């Protein structure tokens, strides 16, 4: 295993900044640990303590249209199903996962199904790009694979119990056949779909809070400290070797939290990674080359957010400003 820095690209091509949108700062005193845009960015959902606020995002202005009540604990995950654009999933400290669906007759969201397979807080959730299945991670130390049956109802098909503590993060590769996870037990698990069964094929001893596939066999990993690691997997029969490199990313000395998962926007080659009170925007060109584009200092580690799937908008909430803020991608 190597431990070298990736090469930083210093050219000035494709410069950009995420800049605040006027009129898109909504004061919110309630805790907001998760936010999500739908596919075309016409709708934004945001946690509000135990409830979910629904906003219409039209002509780059925000207008609240609904308050969804269904959980008995803080909302910790929100994920839109972006193929249909008419469903999203919420996960909460109450251990429940709720599928919400849009009623096209009155344009209001309603509770479609409640899943109760975990016994502790939902900490992370990821949906495959075809929306055939999703994985959920929890403080109960398990990862659940949930799929849809012929009656269009979700059920738990498999439980992965290889972690010995809380699940911190999940990521699927582009081919949707590998899952990586990290947990409080100081392990990264590499899990592969083999004959329709998800099997742990590799364990890496490392503690961290978030991770993200960039390419099918290349991912980033954020441990404690001022660096982000990258891992290049190399398959050889049943053995998976890996090479580790690092990118220096400022943290600011404060602690960090789980939630606010890493995201990689393929169309822009752009990684969004939180580290302490900073959110970093990094272009990753290949396994050896990257470019740091922008760093936003929120002044608090209690910052949570999401970038839209096309990379055009970045939404966040932090406990210093107590605001939901939307920033727009502006090329320089």
Structure at a glance:
This is WD40-repeat-containing domain. This protein has strands spanning 3-5, 7-8, 16-27, 35-37, 43-48, 51-58, 61-68, 75-81, 87-92, 97-103, 108-115, 122-127, 133-138, 143-148, 154-160, 167-172, 178-183, 187-194, 197-205, 210-215, 218-222, 227-236, 239-248, 263-265, 270-275, 278-284, 289-297, 303-307, 313-318, 323-331.
Structural commentary:
The chain has about 325 residues and is mostly beta strands. The protein has one domain: YVTN repeat-like/Quinoprotein amine dehydrogenase (Methylamine Dehydrogenase, Chain H, 7 Propeller), CATH 2.130.10.10. It has no helices and 30 strands. A five-stranded mixed beta sheet has the order 1-23-22-21-20, with no helix packed on it. Strands 2-27-26-25-24 form a five-stranded mixed beta sheet, with no helix packed on it. Strands 3-30-29-28 form a four-stranded antiparallel beta sheet, with no helix packed on it. A hairpin with a 3-residue loop joins strand 17 (about 180-185) and strand 18 (about 185-195). The chain starts with a strand and ends with a strand. The mean pLDDT is about 90.
CATH topology: Methylamine Dehydrogenase, Chain H
Class per helix and strand makeup:
mainly beta
Span between N and C termini? 39 Å
Mean pLDDT: 92
Q: What is the C-level CATH assignment?
A: Mainly Beta
Share in helix: under 10%
Find the count of extended strands (DSSP E, 2+ residues). 30
Could you say which overall geometry the principal axes of the C-alpha atoms support?
globular
User: Can you count the helices?
Assistant: 0
Overall radius of gyration: 19 Å
CATH architectural category:
7 Propeller
The string of secondary-structure elements, in order, is EEEEEEEEEEEEEEEEEEEEEEEEEEEEEE
WD repeats: 68-103
Pfam families: WD40 (PF00400)
Keywords: WD repeat
InterPro entries: WD40_rpt (IPR001680)
């Amino acid at each position: 295993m190597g431990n070298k820095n990736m090469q930083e690209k210093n050219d000035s091509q494709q410069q950009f900044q995420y800049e605040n949108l006027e009129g898109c700062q909504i004061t919110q005193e309630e805790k907001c640990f998760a936010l999500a845009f739908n596919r075309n960015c016409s709708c934004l959902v945001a946690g509000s303590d135990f409830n979910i606020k629904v906003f219409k995002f039209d002509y780059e202005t925000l207008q609240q249209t609904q308050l969804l009540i269904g959980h008995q604990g803080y909302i910790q995950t929100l994920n839109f199903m972006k193929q249909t654009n008419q469903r999203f999933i919420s996960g909460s400290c109450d251990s429940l996962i709720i599928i919400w669906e849009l009623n096209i007759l009155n344009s209001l969201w309603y509770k479609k199904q409640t899943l109760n397979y975990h016994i502790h807080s939902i900490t992370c959730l990821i949906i495959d790009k075809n929306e055939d299945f999703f994985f959920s991670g929890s403080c109960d130390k398990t990862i659940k694979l949930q799929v849809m049956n012929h009656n269009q109802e979700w059920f738990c098909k498999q439980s992965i119990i290889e972690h010995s503590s809380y699940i911190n993060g999940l990521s699927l590769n582009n081919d949707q056949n590998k899952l990586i996870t990290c947990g409080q037990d100081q392990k990264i698990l590499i899990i592969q779909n083999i004959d329709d069964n998800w099997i742990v094929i590799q364990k890496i001893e490392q503690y961290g809070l978030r991770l993200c596939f960039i390419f099918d066999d290349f991912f980033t990993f954020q441990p404690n400290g001022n660096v982000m690691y990258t891992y290049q997997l190399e398959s050889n029969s049943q053995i998976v070797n890996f090479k580790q490199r690092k990118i220096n990313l400022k943290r600011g000395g404060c602690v960090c939290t789980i939630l606010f998962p890493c995201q990689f926007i393929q169309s822009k080659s752009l990684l969004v990674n939180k580290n302490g009170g900073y959110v970093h925007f990094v272009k990753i060109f290949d396994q050896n080359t990257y470019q740091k584009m922008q760093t936003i200092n929120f002044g608090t580690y209690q910052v949570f957010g999401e970038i839209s799937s096309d990379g055009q908008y970045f939404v966040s909430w932090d406990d210093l400003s107590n605001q939901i803020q939307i920033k727009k991608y502006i090329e320089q």
